[in-house]
Structures are given as C-alpha cells and as structure tokens.
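Technical note accompanying the year-one report. For the benefit of new consortium partners, we illustrate the data format agreed upon in the data management plan: each record pairs a sequence with a structure-token string. No post-processing was applied to the example shown here.
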Amino acid sequence: MFFPMGNFHVPTTILDVAENVENFGTSNWFESIRKFLVNEFNAITKKKNQEVIH
C-alpha cells in the first residue's frame, strides 16, 4: 500500500492502521518510515556484499 513489497506482503503496521482508522493520527510515521528504509538499505547492502564475495 504505502510501501509496496516485492513479495506482495502488506506490512503489519499498515494492516493495524486499516483496522483501527481512529488511531491513524497517533502513529509515529517518522519512525515507521525510518525503520522501513533502514531495513531496506540493510537488505540491499547484504545482497551487494554477497555478490562481491561470490
């Protein structure tokens, strides 16, 4: 939805928001986006490092 995944997986936090729209404004969106980006960059770095080793 907000962060399309290659495996068509919807992040749990997005499902939580969809199920409880009243609490949408209380979410820490900055932290959610930061955590997502850090995880993505770590996954890319890990993949690139494995390519260099092989």
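Partners are asked to follow this layout when depositing records. Residues 12 and 40 are 16 Å apart (CA to CA).
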